[in-house]
Design a protein that fits this description.
The chain has five helices and five strands. By secondary structure, it is an alpha/beta fold. Helix 3 links the parallel strand 3 and strand 4.
Length: 122
């Protein structure tokens, strides 16, 4: 199996460092870039063309709900896994309506992120 490129978009630098190390424990996943704002993430999607995106919902410049349609416009087929501490069903459903491939609660990220990434990449 080849290595899949992943872009992390989250304003929390501590979390992105953790998530990068965690994702790369899978030998078939490589974090090619991290963005600390949705706008930076949109630019990186255009220039780096990741094969998967991990997107936080709560960011100061543009939230993930606003970023999802813009990401879909750039690449309608890239899998996007949304992360959030806000995991109420209304958030999950809204993210899916806007184009999220999957939703992972930050409360269970250590258990759920890698299996979810693998599932959306199959």
């Amino acid at each position: 199996m080849r290595t899949v490129s992943v872009l992390l978009i989250d304003d929390n630098t501590t979390f992105t460092r953790f998530a990068k190390r965690y994702i790369e424990t899978d030998p078939h996943l490589s974090v090619i870039a991290t963005a600390h704002s949705a706008k930076e993430g949109l630019d990186l999607v255009q220039t780096r063309r990741p094969e998967a995106i991990v997107l936080d919902l709560a960011m100061p410049d543009m939230n993930g709900f606003d970023a999802l349609p813009a990401l879909r416009e750039i690449d309608p087929d890239v899998p996007i896994v949304v992360l959030s501490m806000h995991d109420a069903p209304k958030y999950v459903e809204h993210a899916r309506r806007l184009g999220a491939s999957a939703f992972v609660s930050k409360k269970t990220v250590a258990q759920d992120l890698l299996p979810t990434l693998r599932a959306v990449l199959l």
